Amino acid sequence: MKRFSSQHTTYEVILSQEVVLEMLEMCKTAKDRETGGILIGNYSPDLHTASITQATCPPRDSTGVRFWFSRGISGVAKLLRQLWHQEHYYLGEWHFHPGASSLASSTDDATMIEIAKSPSYQCSKPILIIVGQSASSKFEMSCYVYSNNAPRIELEEVEKI
Fold first, then answer.
1. Catalytic: which of 34, 87, 156, 159?
2. Model's pTM, two decimal places?
3. Active-site annotation holds for 22
C-alpha cells in the first residue's frame, strides 16, 4: 500500500499494493514511451480521503511517445457508467515519465486544471499520479490534487508497505 497525504490540508490518497504493481507493470511494458490511464475509486464519508481501487491501462486510442502522452477516450465512458453503480468513480489521471522524474510539468498542471473546471468529468478535485523512472531504472511516484481555483497541492508519501 502507498499512502500520500498533504501537510497543510486534509487530503489523503491511498493506493493498494495491487494497484501500485499494476501501474509499474504497465510502465515496464511501455519501456521508453509515456503511458497512462485513469484513476478509479471512492471517497471517505468526509471526502478527504480517496482510495484508488483501479488504475486503468491506456484506452486503445491513446498515444504515447518518449516525452508526451495523450490519453484516449475509447471505452472510458462505458467503464465509468458500469462502475458508478458500484460506487466507484473517476478520481483523476495517472501517467508515466520514462527516464525522468515524477514531477508534474506545466502541461500536466494545465490538463488537470481543465479537468477540474470541466462539468463533464464531475471531479472538482482531480488527483494526478505520476510514475517517474530514473536512469538507474528505479521507479518513484508523485501525487497531486488539483482544483479550478487554487494551485496544485503536492501530497507526500507517508506510508509504504
1. 34
2. 0.91
3. no
